[in-house]
Amino acid sequence: MPTTAADFRDWARHGQTRVELALQRLLPSNEIAPQRLHQAMRYAVLGGGKRVRPLLALAAGELTQANGARVELAAAAVELIHAYSLVHDDLPCMDDDVLRRGKPTCHMQYDEATALLAGDALQALAFQVLAEQRLARRAEDQLQMVALLAQASGSRGMAGGQAIDLASVGKSLTVPELEFMHIHKTGALIRAAVLLGARCGRGMEDDELASLDHFAKCVGLAFQVVDDTLDAEASTATLGKTAGKDAERNKPTFVSALGAAGARDLAQELRQSAYAALDGFGSAAQRLRQLADFIVQREF
Amino acid sequence: MPTTAADFRDWARHGQTRVELALQRLLPSNEIAPQRLHQAMRYAVLGGGKRVRPLLALAAGELTQANGARVELAAAAVELIHAYSLVHDDLPCMDDDVLRRGKPTCHMQYDEATALLAGDALQALAFQVLAEQRLARRAEDQLQMVALLAQASGSRGMAGGQAIDLASVGKSLTVPELEFMHIHKTGALIRAAVLLGARCGRGMEDDELASLDHFAKCVGLAFQVVDDTLDAEASTATLGKTAGKDAERNKPTFVSALGAAGARDLAQELRQSAYAALDGFGSAAQRLRQLADFIVQREF
């Protein structure tokens, strides 16, 4: 059973390549009309990002012995939703950002209208990918996967979290309020990544699903806690996106609520809870544990 | 079998009420957090619009003896996609419009960020509605319905049509080029409405599906041809949205390409083709015929 850091890096790099190839194949070619829209979609999705959500989907698929090609599609669908949310989040009426993944944001590279439509079309493509080919053993299960991704993306998931985030600028939030915001904004889609990956494989008992769900909630929140510490402490060059935005915009974060050390402690606690949730799975969950480590220890 | 205009008006009014009630039920309450987002979503969807797409879905469901509650959900899903597209289309970076369905547009009533997120969340809700409850006899068929709506909404459907529309401003298009644009921008979702409504009911033979598809393409294009003539000829008060926009923005339309009389002739030809496509269905397609009449004869 793999345990070394080098082994994990190889696995992650291989997983990123698999997802990149799937995304390249799923996104319409630059040559297909409307070309500019398809160029903007590919620009927003390909060749960048840590691919944390797809890797979680792949690792969860390994846990349930899922067919590799099926999990790649589920992973790609989640990443398409993530990519569309970044494109819309960077628009002038939202975070008004010019840099993403070390490149000009989509609306800087193209224009606002094209970025808006590219985001819209990426969301539609995510659901197309999740419905067009068989991914689960039973079609009933796959319909539930579609519903799960829709819930995670919508007003009671990611889009709702972004609305709460916007409304919180300039306010002081308690840690429970911050958790509520991020369980929606970041957590919902990370949770969807884990559950969709797992559901491509063998059937799961209710208690297994509940454990996996708890793992996903812990790493989802840990991801955001670490994001907040990185925004406060890392450089724009390291992050590939504008650093220090939260403080500049007077946004409440886990760092502003707990201090940098307190936020790092919370991230470690969440990692321990995530580990504990996987106890029943033994070595089959090794990649998920390593991803929890990566999410907490990453420096970008 | 119903044939009078009064009977059709009663049927349409009843159908609009059914869809309105379904949408009211499906949209999260104003009281659920994030409240402002949910208010904006309800504002954008409820209490307005001709509901042409949902009526087409209901009529197609009657053709295949579909369960009424199921078709209402399929009709609502299509209308949620349509409503989100209007919210995004009205944004300053797109058509920059202030009036829609006789009310301030969503971003005027709320703000741009809320309107952007409301549109995003409405798209997600459409797919949730289409996947969460059983709508087709077989789950496999329902997955195909999800894929169909995603294709119709995405870069090779509605969103792609809007991109072509944006790129066409100030250009002179031929009638085939105009048709290509509108088959995507308006036609794809109208086609989805007909096919999704029909697929809630009995299984259809390939030739039946092909006929229904041809009907849908004809009425979809006719809808846009009539829209162009209304934009050129009707008043803002009658339309509930800003009239005369196309000429003001130097947008190519069927009126600019064919003249007003030529556009009206084309709409009549398309109605005849739509009628012909329904020949094999007999009286079961009566509501679809009446809707084709309504689409071509409407004055708003």
Search tags:
14 helices, two-stranded antiparallel ribbon, mainly alpha, homodimer, 2 strands, Farnesyl Diphosphate Synthase, 300 residues
Give a quick summary of the entry.
The structure is a homodimer of 300-residue chains. The first copy, chain A, is mainly alpha-helical and 300 residues long.
What is the fold's blueprint, element by element?
Two copies of one chain form a homodimer.
Chain A: H1 5-26, H2 35-45, H3 52-63, H4 68-89, E1 99-100, E2 103-104, H5 106-109, H6 112-132, H7 139-153, H8 158-168, H9 175-199, H10 206-233, H11 236-239, H12 245-248, H13 254-277, H14 286-297
Antiparallel strand pairs in A: 1-2
Helix pairs in contact in A: 1-4, 2-6, 3-4, 3-9, 3-14, 4-6, 4-9, 7-9, 8-9, 9-10, 10-13, 10-14, 13-14
What can you tell me about this protein's structure?
2 copies of one chain form a homodimer. Chain A is mostly helical. The longest helix of chain A has 28 residues, at 206-233. The first copy, chain A, has helices at residues 5-26, 35-45, 52-63, 68-89, 106-109, 112-132, 139-153, 158-168, 175-199, 206-233, 236-239, 245-248, 254-277, 286-297; strands at 99-100, 103-104. In chain A, β1 and β2 (103-104) form a beta hairpin. Chain A is built from 14 helices and 2 strands. Chain A has one domain: Farnesyl Diphosphate Synthase. In chain A, strands 1-2 form a two-stranded antiparallel sheet. The interface between A and B is large, with 55 and 55 residues.
